[in-house]
């Protein structure tokens, strides 16, 4: 008799329906919000006489539970109502 109990189970891929502009991520991290003021400041030399202050809040590289995610790397942020919207660069700072 053949014993197939050691055969790995096939993963079932579920299709998740996300809201507008969101993407499903198995390993999401922090999300950003429109108009949120970052808490860390760094200085960057633009040219010999001008400095630019860059502010950001670091996000730990730890997977959070799988969920629909608002992709900040594409310019999207959460608004005050929790919607994933595109934030114009000037509105992000």
UniProtKB/TrEMBL annotation:
UniProt-recorded name of the protein: Uncharacterized protein
Lineage: Eukaryota, Metazoa, Ecdysozoa, Nematoda, Chromadorea
């Amino acid at each position: 008799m053949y014993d197939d109990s050691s055969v790995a189970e096939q993963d079932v891929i579920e299709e998740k329906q996300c809201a507008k502009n969101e993407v499903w991520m198995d390993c999401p991290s922090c999300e950003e919000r429109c108009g949120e003021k970052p808490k860390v400041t760094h200085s960057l030399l633009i040219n010999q006489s001008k400095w630019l202050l860059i502010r950001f809040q670091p996000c730990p590289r730890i997977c959070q539970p799988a969920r629909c995610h608002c992709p900040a790397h594409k310019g999207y942020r959460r608004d005050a109502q929790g919607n994933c919207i595109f934030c114009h660069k000037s509105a992000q700072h």
